[in-house]
Each structure stands twice: as C-alpha cells, then as structure tokens.
Amino acid sequence: MDDLITRLNDQEQQRYQKMVRLRERGINPYPLRTARTHTARAALDAFARGEAVTGAAFAGRLVALRDMGKLTFAHLQDGTAKIQLLVRKDVVGAEQYALLMKDIDLGDFIGVTGDLVRTRTGEITIQVATFELLAKTLSPLPEKWHGLKDTETRYRQRYLDLLANETAREIFIKRAQIVQAMRKFLDGQDFLEVETPVLQPLYGGAAAEPFVTHHNKLDRDMYLRIADELYLKRLLVGGYERVYEISKDFRNEGIDIKHNPEFTMMECYQAYGDYTTMMDLVEGLYGACALAAHGTLQITYQGHALDLTPPWRRVTMRDLILETSGVDIYTATDLPALLRRIAELNLKVERHPTWGKLVDELFSTFAEPTLIQPTFVTNHPTEISPFAKKTLENPNVVERFEAFAANMELGNAFTELNDPLDQYARFVEQQTQRQAGDKEAHQIDLDFIEAMMHGMPPTGGLGVGVDRMVMLLTDQASIREVILFPQLRS
RNA sequence: GGGUCGGUAGCUCAAUUGGCAGAGCAACAGCCUUUUAAGCUGUGGGUUCAGGGUUCGAUUCCCUGCCGACUCACCA
Fold first, then answer.
1. What are the tens digits of pLDDT across the range A137-167?
2. Which of A95, A374, A398, A417 is most buried, judging by how many CB atoms fall within 10 Å of its CB?
3. Shortest CA–C1' contact from A254: which nucleotide?
C-alpha cells in the first residue's frame, strides 16, 4: 500500500492527507450505509409540481463548490440529475461547515438532508440541514468547463468520459433503450430469445478470420464465434419456428471507425419466411428502435437527413452496379468476361478473384458510396453467399439482401439454404477458395450438414449489427463512441 | 501493415529562427451570507511520452520505440 501512496501526485497526496485527518477524528471516509429518501430528479419534479419537499435525504457526487464565506453553494450530481445545495454556516454549525471547507473535495460522494427552497435566482435548491461523507475520492476529476477531450483517456478510462461528458452518458442510455426496443419488438413477433456457443470447435456463418483459443483439458484449439448463424439454424431443425440471439461476435480483422474486433450482432430466423419477410422485419425493427431512441423515423446522420419510413428502396445489385459503373454483371457472366470489363475501368483486382468477389468489388467501389437513404440491395452472387438459396431465374445469384443507409451496412439477410446437398456443394466450393489462399472462406461443417439432412423448414434469416444501429440512431461517426470499452491499439 | 498529424501541470491549452516551460480551471493559504464557468489577494505544482543523436544550449531539429487520431489497405 505504501508504494501506491508514494505514487500519488500532489493533489492526490492532499486528498489522502484529508482522508487520514477524517479517520483521526473518527469519521469513516467509506461508511457502509446510505440513507436516501429522494433522487434529485424526483425531488425537483415534486417541487416543480408545487409539493413541499422537507426533511429529504439525498446522495450523490459533489461536482461544484462556490464558497461565499459564511455560506456555500454547491451542486450534487446523482444518477438522475444535478441539484444545487445551499450550505449555511449558521445552520449546519461551525464544525460541520469547516469539515466541508477543509476535508471534503470536489468529486467526493456525500449525503445531505434538508428542505427544498428556491434561491433568489429561482433555482430549486436543497437548503442543507446536515451532510456526511459517503465516499472519499483520491483522484481529482476532469475539469468542469472544458471537460475531458483526450480520446485515449476517454476510451481507456470511460468512467471519466461518462462523468465529464453529458453526450457520452446519453449515448449509452440510448443504446440500452434501443436494445430493449429490439427485444420487445422481436418478442412481440413471437421470436424466442436463445443463447448459442461463443466458444466453438469450428467457426462459420460469415466470411471472417476468427480468434483462436485453446481448451487445456481437451487439449484442442477452439474459436470465438464469428456469427451465430449455424447454431441458430440447428434450432429450426429442432422445431422452433422463430429464434433470435443478441450477442457478441468476434472477428480477427483490422480496427477502424466502423469495426471493433468484438461487436454486437442480432441474428434471427423465421421458419416459412424468406428474404422479403426479412425486409419487412428490418423496416419494422429499425422503426421500433428509432421510435424508442428518437420518437420519430426522420433522423439526421452526419449531416444527412434520413427517412426510415417503410417501404425502403429495393434494388438489385445488378441494377445498382449497372447504374453506377455501366457494367452489366448479367452480361459478363463469367470470370474472364468480367475481368475484361474491370480492366477497362482500371480497377484493382485481388489475388484470388472469382466472379462473385469481383461483383462485390464493383459494388463496393461504385454503388455503395451512393447509398444514403435506407436501401435494400438484393440478389448477391452465389459464390459469396454460401448459405442462401439461388434465385429461380439466375443460379449465379441468390435471394439475399444487405440493408444500407448513410453508406453503412446495417443488415444482411437470406432466403436460407435448406438443401443439405446444395449446402455441402457450397462448402466444397468454399474449401476450394480456402485452398487457393482465402483465409476467410468457410471450413466444411459436417455437423451442420448432418443437422440439415434431418430437415430444416424454408426459412428467412437476418443479421443486424447492433453497434451500427446505435451509431445511426445516435448520430455517431465512430463505433468507438457507442461501445463502452472499445478495443484500442494495445 | 502503409501514409499524415499529434503526445507539455490533475483537466483544457500556449510557448517567436534553437535561448529561464506559461495561462485558465483544479489544488493550497486567506477575504466574502444568494452564487451558478462566482469574485478578489497570495502560494505551490513539470521525467515537455520514452531512449538516443546534433548543439554552448532541445518542448522546438534528426533517429528509434511506445501510444492515439485521421486515412489507405483489410473488412459480408
């Protein structure tokens, strides 16, 4: 403990000395119990309604002190609101008053009792009768006016950000409201919330590199899940018709303004639905969450006015690529033909191109930057969609959509593939990609195939990035602003 | 992983061509009975991210490393 104390800076040393003085006078700086009768919000509201609030007990953090000599104004912040304190030396007594002035610091938790009054300026204020220390603070808090701006400190010591920056506190309240609305919406549609393994012997359900870990007693490597898909579908084989899971997924990829290695995903599956069912679901879900966070479907994101009112625009990937790049992927239907068209556009080609990957590249480069208003982009290449059913008209593309708004992908859904033999063939194709060097291609999951051989109903499935949704609904450009403890470099 | 910019007191920020490292808030000692970024007087507080180099002298210039932001690559 001594080594901790010697590491304290000068302000922390002073606070520590105050704590020692308090103990010497028989005052426990960390008492066991708090007697509270009112939150700041409840008391302010009651008084504003004209009710008298007398002999009330409050608890919170001391966040401002204005010492006028024989009286002091202060502000107490609790979990609900900030409320002004008026402490008069002639009311609390010289000894107590001196305690406040000498040994209680900004940031300390205190409990006060008193009556609510209005000051001359009209502010509803607790006229303090008694006060006591509830918890001593050793480190000074960030400055009251400029707040805390240093991004590294804001993310690494999020508690300081939440204390100093009102908007940060509000974002995570909205996040909770959004997730709550999501659950309520899905529960209301008779979806069953389930939990599936995070720790998996094989990973799958998305194209991504996993985090690898090791089980010591079993002496085998395990993977943190990259998606919930393959386990949730097993539950449809098991007879549940509508299931969903809201959970962390993990992808071992770069970190940037829209990607965190662990992120929250909502996946749901609905038997006897298809991808159009999922479009209706996305519109309903986003609507419910937007209403919970905003009370309206008209939102502003990074300067863009967005209208979430259904129906959202629905456009095929082919039409969108044709419209934005001039390339018709239904004319250039094989790899050599598409490569020739792409060469004309001077577009860079990756090392292991397939027709599907090039289509995706064309889409990302030309079409995606144009997608501001909510849009369902449909009918992706079969090659990059190993879990979706092919369309009747064209086996090169599948019944799939990705939802976009403000150039951000918001969700991904399929008419789920339930043909075990086709599924096996897709896995084999993925394996080929894998052997060609694509680390993100799927491994063959025979256990999943076996499940599907027992029969899976026709199903619509959907994945929605919860962090992305919160970004959109709180107007935040960076995913780090909507994750309490985001991954930083080290 | 590449590029650009940045890291100075507890917090927010200054510091001229390379010449004693400063301010506001916070802290400390005082004054003040209606303030609310209270005010007034005085005081203390620095591994200038770390290590090396150039120089009489480095917060400043150079190199290496660490950390962050943005950006590119990557990313269903």
1. 999 998 778 888 888 899 989 999 999 888 8
2. A398
3. B74
Q: Are residues A102 and A187 in the same domain?
A: no
CATH, residue A72: 2.40.50.140
CA of A346 to C1' of B2 (A): 22
Question: Which nucleotide, over all strands, has the C1' atom closest to the CA of A481?
Answer: B69
Query: How far does the CA of A170 sit from the C1' of B32, in Å?
Result: 38
A207: the nucleotide nearest its CA (via C1') is B76
A250 and A384 belong to one structural domain? yes
Q: Could you tell me the two tokens for A90?
A: 């002639």
Domain end marker among A117, A135, A153? A135
B chain positions with any atom within 7 Å of a protein CB: 1, 9-13, 24-29, 31-39, 44-45, 66-76
Are A182 and A285 members of one domain? yes
Q: What is the pTM for the complete model shown?
A: 0.93
Give the tens place of pLDDT for each residue, A445-465.
999 999 999 999 999 999 999
pLDDT value, residue A195: 96
Å from A152 (CA) to B7 (C1')? Answer: 10
pLDDT digits (tens, 9 = 90+) for A5-35: 777 888 999 999 999 999 999 999 999 999 9
Closest residue by Cα to the C1' atom of nucleotide B37?
Answer: A145
CATH of the domain at A193: 3.30.930.10
Query: Which pLDDT score, from 0 to 100, does residue A1 have?
Result: 65
Same domain for A121 and A191? Answer: no
Identity of residue A318: R
